[in-house]
Amino acid sequence: MPAIPATSVRMAASAVDLVKVYGSGPTAVRALDGVTVGFEAARFTAIMGPSGSGKSTLMHCLAGLDSVTSGTVRIGDTDLSSLSDRELTRLRRDRVGFVFQAFNLMPTLTAKQNILLPLELAGRKPDQAWFTTLVDVLGLADRLNHRPAEMSGGQQQRVALARALVTRPEVVFADEPTGNLDSRTGAEVLSFLRTSVREFGQTIVMVTHDPVAASYAERVVLVADGKVVGEIAQPTPDSVLDAMRKLGA
């Protein structure tokens, strides 16, 4: 795939000639094979592909959760390969948000404590107005003193969303964020992700296997056999499903 063209549009995350190999010798697996792709700031992009295509590996490399074999990964203008382990940890804490399928909340903390945890770890005081905005938009005001075991799956995922956004990160990476939710609750979560882009200028990069979930995004990047093989602008469930069928998914 050609290099990312020069543009005035700011990239929140990008990769150039990204290669990721697991293992060595005859058993080595080339999970990513020369991926070049950019994710524009203040946009909602979904990454889709067949099982084993490399889509989750791509997200993990972009987010600095996994090292790369070769190539370049950037958050904004920062080359992740130039960072020490300590600097990379600080970048993930301060400039990146994460939302996972399994919520990953601390079971002994209340919803409020879970939301504010990234700020506490960073030694930063919360922006009370922003915290209140997140809580109100996500409908969590009456759940702030509840622990995860006292909340539904949808409520836990909304807490995870608030936690991801409370630091005002440059980009939020979401890995199958609706995978453990029923369709109605999943739609609420996806609607909020879209709202966070349109109203708050957030950047969202989401890995999903669900064509309906992908249709909430403004753009879908298609991955197969460790390569970016295409994209869909303004996706619909039908256009995504058709593209996945052509990929043999």
Automatic annotation (TrEMBL):
Keywords, ordered alphabetically: ATP-binding, Nucleotide-binding, Transport
Domain of life of the native organism: Bacteria
CDD domains found in the cross-reference section: ABC_MJ0796_LolCDE_FtsE
SMART domains in the cross-refs: AAA (SM00382)
Record domain ABC transporter: where: 16-249
Pfam (any one): ABC_tran
SUPFAM superfamilies: P-loop containing nucleoside triphosphate hydrolases
Coiled coil: none
Gene Ontology molecular function terms on file: ATP binding; ATP hydrolysis activity; transmembrane transporter activity
GO cellular component: membrane protein complex; plasma membrane
Tagged with keyword Zinc: no
PANTHER family, sorted: ABC TRANSPORTER RELATED, IMPORT ATP-BINDING PROTEIN
Record protein name field: Putative ABC transport system ATP-binding protein
Source organism of this protein record: Thermasporomyces composti
